[in-house]
Amino acid sequence: xxxxxxxxxxxxxxxxxxxxxxxxSRDFYSCTCPKLQPIVKKGVAEAIKKxxxxxxxxxxxxxxxxxxxxxxxxxxxxxxxxxxxEKTAAPNNNSARGFNVIDxxxxxxxxACPGVVSCADILTLAARDSVVLLGGPYWEVPLGRRDxxxxxxxxxxxxxxxxxxxxTNLISNFASHGLSVEDLVALSGAHTIGxxxxxxxxxxxYNDSDIDASFAKSLQSKCPRRxxxxxxxxxxxxxxxxxxxLYFKHLLVKKGLLHSDQxxxxxxxxxxxxxxxxxxxxxAFFKDFAEGMIRMSKIKPLTxxxxxxxxxxxxxN
Length: 317
Ligand code: HEM
Ligand SMILES: *[C@@H]1O[C@H](CO)[C@@H](O)[C@H](O)[C@H]1NC(C)=O
Ligand SMILES: *[C@@H]1O[C@H](CO)[C@@H](O)[C@H](O)[C@H]1NC(C)=O
Ligand SMILES: *[C@@H]1O[C@H](CO)[C@@H](O)[C@H](O)[C@H]1NC(C)=O
Ligand SMILES: *[C@@H]1O[C@H](CO)[C@@H](O)[C@H](O)[C@H]1NC(C)=O
Ligand SMILES: *[C@@H]1O[C@H](CO)[C@@H](O)[C@H](O)[C@H]1NC(C)=O
What we know:
Layout: H1 2-15, H2 17-20, H3 36-50, H4 53-66, H5 99-112, H6 119-133, H7 153-159, H8 167-176, H9 181-188, E1 195-197, H10 198-207, H11 213-220, E2 232-234, H12 246-252, H13 259-263, H14 272-280, H15 282-297
Antiparallel strand pairs: 1-2
This protein binds protoporphyrin IX containing FE (HEM) and 2-acetamido-2-deoxy-beta-D-glucopyranose (NAG) (5 copies).
């Protein structure tokens, strides 16, 4: 029965292969790697058990992958003689983490289904599982991405939004990736988990006026004007390992950690209403976040015969 289903599916895919060539689908690996999703979920659960923050780090890796020439696992490539990769780009250097977890997941998947599943799909699934395991929404992940054979530090420098951006620039950055204002606000809700470095939130706590005074003061005590660049603070100061809507509640009382966070709610921002909605309605946030994640995961995927299925996520085959 199962094999008949798979055979029919393959036949159908073959018949319409022209039409679906650039499309992703939930059951892309259902014949070729049926255990994929349980394998990834188990590996992510183990990693989060060791360190809860790693879920946030994996989610951010996926975001930084997709915003640089599409979701093609380019961020996972180490530097080579022919290109400098994305790991040392300004937004990633001393910041992007979780690469070893993806290596472990890839090794487990290779054992079960050698040469079949892309690093880009493994990273996309791991990001979804991280959100779910930390208490956030579940969504079905469209699959069938392939892996890039190159990476670009320049593109990473240029395409990933910086925390110094104002709302206008955040909106246009997301628009340049085909994402809406609603996507910007919902996806920024990822900052309900994880940590940021002093060097990233320093301008906001010293120079901005749209910040709660005592909140700024307590942050200034661990993040001085100079030095301690790598000291960490939670993006959601109350529950940085729970995927909830507190990030938005904090914005309403001027307790966003990054300049870019507080830009979404200034009392005069065009996005104030969305922030207020997500602050009072977790279901609405979860629904829009899941939809935004699916849209983000579809940015310029390599499909069909483009790219390759890397055996080692750090290296081109
Ligand atoms: C809207 C524009 C965004 C800006 C300007 C931004 C900026 C930042 C910055 C500066 C950090 C701290 C990095 C460090 O200190 O090393 C950070 C952390 C993080 N970002 Fe964003 N981000 C944005 C959107 C997103 C999106 C769309 C996602 C995912 C859907 C995301 C997920 C995360 C997570 C989970 C962390 C914590 C990572 C960890 O603890 O390892 N961010 N972000
Ligand atoms: C991908 O799927 C969508 C929706 O099913 C369809 O509208 C579109 O034409 C497809 N694109 C390609 C290139 O197959
Ligand atoms: C990355 O960070 C390391 C360690 O702080 C530093 O030595 C190096 O210059 C940085 N690289 C880039 C490209 O900024
Ligand atoms: C990207 O940014 C890094 C860190 O700021 C800088 O050292 C490097 O020159 C930039 N690289 C390119 C290719 O733009
Ligand atoms: C946002 O920043 C850009 C460039 O940094 C600037 O030109 C623009 O005036 C700013 N917009 C607002 C509304 O502050
Ligand atoms: C605050 O703004 C001033 C003036 O623009 C600038 O010189 C300084 O570097 C900024 N301080 C921080 C911590 O960003």
